[in-house]
Structure formats: structure tokens, C-alpha cells
Amino acid sequence: MWEAVKRAVQRNSKFLFCTHRDPDADGVGSELALCCALEEMGKEAVILNPDSLPSILQFMDPDGRVQGFDRLGPKESVKRLDAAEVIFFLDAGQWKRLQPMGELVAARAGKVICIDHHPADEKLTPDSVVDEKASSTGELIYDLLKKLGHPLNERLAYYLYCALVKDTGSFRFENTSTRVFRMAADLAAHGIKPHEVYDQVFERSSIGSVLCLGLVLDTLRLAYDNRLAYISLTRNMLETSGSRIEETENFVNVIRSIDPVETCIFFRELDNGKIKISFRSKTSKIDVNLLAGKFGGGGHKRASGAVVSGALPEVIDRVVAAAADCFQ
């Protein structure tokens, strides 16, 4: 599985890493870990993401390694893309997940290697590695470092542990396997303090975000015999509470605890006339990746997303109606 990637690492010296728009701890932790590992091997490595790091992830990058296309601009970004001999695209497998720099990266597809754990109809590029059975992209990078014979250290272990704890919901989700626990134990043995990582990843809510959560929970609605729960966020709620949209990412998980709810949907109004939708399933019987696919999105069977154009009330009606198929 890793032979082509190993050859790319061994035969080249200049690398660029990127992850999807609206980055999370899995994508960022994975690219930081592999970037730093290659630097330790004597390689040149840079990180260029569509977005600059949101405030909730800046704890992972105190040295400012992660650069954003949104701030760097097309001209400087192209220089970095052209200088790289290999481009690693991590934690996503669609060019559109790299917007607004997706076309620039796709134009250089011949030197792109995707490493991802999301379902895909086909590999993005011939040498890409996609493993849907992996809990996270961080787990795949952990495997790759083992295959490369590169030793872990506290810094690399920290990045990978952040990735792992995020995508397993701190070892609560269905993707938490015995292998995940073995990996976590190995990472912890390198000086990681699990309680500190949990605090950074899951317990850093601002006052504004808590006030915003109260406003969002007031929008809670149930459908299909209480098997579907959905909530919504408007731009006005963000302004009223003084919160930032990246701080609302986990709001959808709050309503997962409602019994007998099986599926949760969170609608967020963006500032460009579009609605960002997060889908979550509590049961293996309901595949929200299929539901997200109806709206041009995707992800995992239990957690997916989409971005849809339209007014918030109209989008809610469309999506809730389409969700009927989940409960047949």
C-alpha cells in the first residue's frame, strides 16, 4: 500500500502539504506530523492550506508552520506549489475540498499524492492511499512513519494524538478499534498527556460560543417520530453572541444524546449566501454519507457534510424532506 509513497519520499527532497478547507485536528495534525518528520530526514517541507488556521487549532502550531492561501495569495502560493517535487493532500479526496486553491493543485496532479480515510469511488491520483477502515488520517500517517522506519518523538506523537483523538471523538465513536487503542498507548508512551490534549481539542469554548449554543438550541426541531433532530445557526446569532463560526463545529454533537434520535443535522448560514450542513448518524443502519451526497457533499457513513446555495429556511425544508429516505 505504501510502496509508491515510500519511493516518493526517498527520491525527492522538496515537499508541500495541504489539507481540506475548514481544517480539523486530524488534517492539521497529520500534515504537521509528516512535514516535521520529513524535515527530520533532511527534506524541505512547507504547509499550504486553503484557510489559515482557525483560532481553535492554533495551539497545534505555535511556530506558525501552517500558511493559508487566503492570506498568502495566488502568486506566492503558486511559487510554493511549483517548487514542490511532491504535494501531499491529506484527509480529503476531492479537489473541491481544496477551494479556492483546488484548481491550482489539480493542475499539478502529476505530483500529488492523496492520503485519506474517507470513502472514495476512485483514487484521486495513481499513487494515492485511501483506507476507509482507518479511524483517521493520523492513523495512516502513523503507519507510514513506521514503514519509513522513522522513529516517533514527543512532537510527532503529539500531532498524531491530536489527530486520533479528534476523529474518534476521544475514543467514543464506532471507528475506535483495538488498533486505535494500541496506537494511542504508543503515542502516550512518548510523553503525551491525554488529559491536556482532550482539554485543548474539546474543552476550549469561549463565552461567546456558549451563548451562541443557547441560541442554536432554541431552534431544535424533531421529525420522523423523533428519529431526526436538527438545529440551525444564523449570521445574526453569531453577531449577537460574539462567537465565530469555527467555534460552532461541535454543536451538532450536543443533540446526539437525545433519545430516541438516530440522526442529527446542523445547518449553518455562511456569509456568502450558502448553507453549511453537518450530518451525524447514531446507528449503522443510517448512512448519512448517502444523504450528504444528494446535496453534493460527502464524508463518512456516520459523519458527513455539504455546502448548499439558498436561503436557510428553504435549504432546511429540502434537506429534511430528503432525509425521509433514511427512515423507511
UniProtKB/TrEMBL annotation:
UniProt-listed Pfam families: DHH, DHHA1
InterPro entries with a match to the protein in the record: DDH_dom, DHH_sf, DHHA1_dom, Oligoribo/pAp-PDE_c-di-AMP_PDE
GO molecular function, one term: nucleic acid binding
Domain of life: Bacteria
Residue ranges constituting the DDH domain according to the UniProt record: 15-163
Domain DHHA1 stretches: 247-327
PANTHER family the UniProt entry points to: BIFUNCTIONAL OLIGORIBONUCLEASE AND PAP PHOSPHATASE NRNA
Name of this protein: DDH domain-containing protein
The organism of origin for this protein: Candidatus Glassbacteria bacterium RIFCSPLOWO2_12_FULL_58_11
